[in-house]
Amino acid sequence: MAFQLDIVTPEKKIFSDTVDNVYLPGADGEMGILPAHAGLVTALQPGVLRYLLHGQVVGLAIGSGFAEVTQTKVVVLTDSALGESEIDEAQVEEAIKRAQEKLDTIDHSLDMEEVAYLQGVIARATAELHFKRQR
Asked: In CATH, what is the architecture of 3-82?
């Protein structure tokens, strides 16, 4: 028994097919979804999304977002979704370095939105780097 999985970013639909299961980096930890799962909506944190397609485990490094789960479908809305070949380690390491340097030099008058943005950049880049190095 399988269910529909759609992965969508602001730029495009990344994936749309039937899968046997999916594992999501939920805000409270990794969450496994099987066919006929109870319906829910959950926040996602940067991490690795995995799914089983035709007997093969496929992984993507995703950013933050949301997932809607029904008994027959999972829709993932995320700000980024990258496969292993799309991740350049040097660029990711540089992004982490730049964001961390900016955070380290911040004076206390900086607005919290910029701090949250920089922390999000670091979290997403760290997830991408972790995913790339696992492979």
From this structure: Sandwich (2.60)
